[in-house]
Amino acid sequence: MSIHEKIKKAKIDYYAEESELSDGEYDALEEELRLVDPNCEELKVIEPNVGNWPKAKHLVPCGSLDKVQNEEDWTKWWSKLGITDDVVVSDKLDGISIELVYSNGIFKQAITRGADGLVGEDITPNVTRMKGIPKTVKEFTGSIRGEIIITHQDFKDHFDGYRNPRNAAAGTAKRLDGTGCEHLSILCYDMVPTPCDTYEQTLCHLLDNGFATPTYSKVSCNTVPGYVRAVFQNRATTPYDIDGAVVRVNNNKVFTKLGDLNMNPRGATAYKPPPEVKATIIREVTWQVGMQCRLTPVAEIEPVDIGGVTISRVSLHTAKNAMSSNAGVGASVLVSRANEVIPYLAKVVEGKPISAPEKCPSCNKKNLSWDGEYLECINPTCPSVLFGSIKVWTDRLNILNWGTSFINSIIHEMGVVHNLSHIYDLDWGMVGDTVGHGVAERARKSLESCKKMTLAQFIAALNIKGCQTTAKDIVSAGYDTVDKFISLDETTLSGISGIGPVKAASIASGIKQLEKTVRELVKYVTIEAPKVGRMSGKSFCITGKLSKPRAEIEKMIVDHGGEVKSSVGKGTSYLVTNEGSNSSKSLKAKALKINIISEAELMKLLN
Question: 210: closest CA among 100, 61, 98?
């Protein structure tokens, strides 16, 4: 894989909750590409459009910041400005950039940064559920800039199983059903136009009007390096992740006069101290099985001290990456800590070959299969695979009180669960003796309260790759019973609208592996028959911004007997949209002569 392809993949993975690179590794990769090809397109793309949200143009272009990494860089940057004004130093947030649009004091729209900083995705329904933004602001029409983040406390309470808050925020913010957005927060750091003379006053004004802001302080220019060092030293007490500090000219008129270059403001910079790097030797490579059944190689290294912390292990991320980098036993390597927190392999100085394992380290069976960069265990009874299946099942069906420690207890400590269906046949008294009777009772009640589900929900929760987004399409295509679903093969799946050959192969393989589990599960859960109503026999596809959350609209359609599809096809009865006719779904609907109706027209049909 070329460096251009690695950067492109890393950006897409970041916004799809699948990032395998730490911030430090990504920054190093981007710097390498900047040296090789400084004008390439991959460096210009800020945020890839990976979702199905409608596009929207920003009121104010959303660029990025230039970086300085040490006191010498800072001095050069500041001297170029040729001013003596004070600056404001604020936390550089490690999240998702968002523009909030207000009209006459009323919140109207939320737009992600997007690929070019000019057009992003309109995720307004999800943002309305987040913390930190007021619905009204007195006498304001314009743009508020902010960042979607997850606080450390919310990450601990609600995002068990995710790799880090940044990736959890990136994926959750763009979920089409809005699940989990109530646990996200938005911290705001600018407004255009601003009624204030200084940036410090702008931040105060935001706070006074109900917005949450990052921590900030006005300092003199000659104290910036020391202040930034203190910010990094106190990161453990910051309630959210940061990946540097933002230094901005305090005088707003001076800041505006300085202008920008390629949408990067000249009057502000990101101060990101370079990570400390240490040389060491790889002593051993071990393999771990993660939630997605993927084997992750981990390098056990000669311990080194970085920033007062002893590092003895670093992830090698994917099997293909580890093998191509020659990070085997005896290799000389450089290691560091991304954001002074996460250990990572910075460079292989003198490589040694590494071989992929023949057996899964968790179940000790030869059930390994390659999927692109990844080596996966496909044994459904493997303890690690089983953990992932239970976690996905409980998460997607919104079964509460089933966290990592609880699931690990019933699999490993008790050894009573060997199949996903076994969670419905537990001896809860014995579970209580192991984890505590209060914990067990809450888990039992949550499980019992979620036994009824639609077939689409059942299919989506099976942790079969490709099924989460295509479950509704499968059911709508006529495979509306468990037996029909189990009978699906690769050829049949390829013929269903919205499922291509790659997904078809993955889904067919998953169905074959889980057939026994599926037949056991239906003994314990109730698959609700499609509701009968005035929309029975009608199918709907929804696109664009609506006045209500999409999940709410979809539920109304289903409650009236209708079906909801993720894409427009020959069998679609209606396309519901409040937007113009230039979207790809609208154009396809016109070509297929499908009825295009507004949200108001849909309400008339339903009511």
Answer: 100
Model confidence, pTM = 0.51
**What does the pLDDT look like over 316-335, one tens digit per residue?**
888 888 888 888 899 998 88
- For domain 453-528, the question of CATH label 3.20.20.140 is answered with no
Protein fold of 380-450:
DNA polymerase; domain 1 (1.10.150)
Marked catalytic residue, from 6, 9, 11, 92: 92
- pLDDT tens for 76-92 read 999 999 888 899 999 99
Residues 6+ apart with CB under 8 A from 548: 125, 599
Residue 412 gets which letter from DSSP? I
**Same fold for the pair 380-450 and 453-528:** yes
Q: Please name the helix (run of DSSP H) or strand (run of DSSP E) that holds residue 389, with its range, or none.
A: helix 383-396
Q: In the CATH scheme, what is the homologous superfamily, with its name and number, of domain 49-271?
A: DNA ligase/mRNA capping enzyme (3.30.470.30)
22 and 342 Cβ atoms separated by less than 8 Å: yes
> Number of helices and strands (H, E) in the chain?
23, 26
* Cα angle: 427, vertex 429, 433; to 5 degrees: 120
**Closest to 506 (Cα-Cα) out of 477, 468, 456, 466:** 466
Concatenate the DSSP letters of all residues of 549-568 into one string: -HHHHHHHHHHTT-EEESS-
- Assess whether 92 carries a catalytic annotation: yes
The CATH homologous superfamily for domain 539-606 is: BRCT domain (3.40.50.10190)
What does the buried/exposed string (b/e) look like for 529-564 if buried means 16 or more CB atoms within 10 Å of the residue's CB?
A: eeeeeebeebbbbbbbbbeebbeebbebbbebebbb
